[in-house]
Amino acid sequence: MPRRTYFPWHYLILGLAAIGLVSQMVKSPSTLIIIVVVIGVIYYFYKSPPRWLMRLGNPSYYQYYQPPRHRKPVKRKRRKNRFEVINGSKK
Q1: Which of 13, 16, 37, 48 is most open to solvent, judged by the fewest CB atoms within 10 Å of its CB?
Q2: What's the whole-model pTM score?
Q3: Which residue has better confidence, 9 or 62?
């Protein structure tokens, strides 16, 4: 496993972001809640888009799309072994 090294500026940026989020929550929490909800809805639709939304993006795909049919598994023929066992007796 590679070892991650974080430089001091990583901690500085994370600290400033945390301070900004806390100050935003103190000043006006409603705007922060709205931003979190909008980002959550976008993430949800990205991970599991509904069909009507997918049709808006690419209607030609669903015009010709047919769900895959269930097929019976094909039994493969077994190859004949190259070697034969010869019964013999050990002395």
Answers
A1: 48
A2: 0.40
A3: 9
| 20 closest CA partner among 31, 9, 6 | 31
What is the Cα–Cα distance from 89 to 91, expressed in whole angstroms? 6
Q: Quick one: which of 74, 54, 75, 76 has its CA closest to 65?
A: 54
Q: 63: which 2 tokens?
A: 């015009």
Backbone angles phi, psi at 77, to 5 degrees: -75, 140
Tokens of 27: 């000043």
Using the 8-state DSSP alphabet, how is residue 64 labeled? S
The structural domains of the chain, with segments of one domain joined by +, span 29-63
Phi, psi of 20 (to 5 degrees): -65, -40
Span 37-60, mean pLDDT? 78
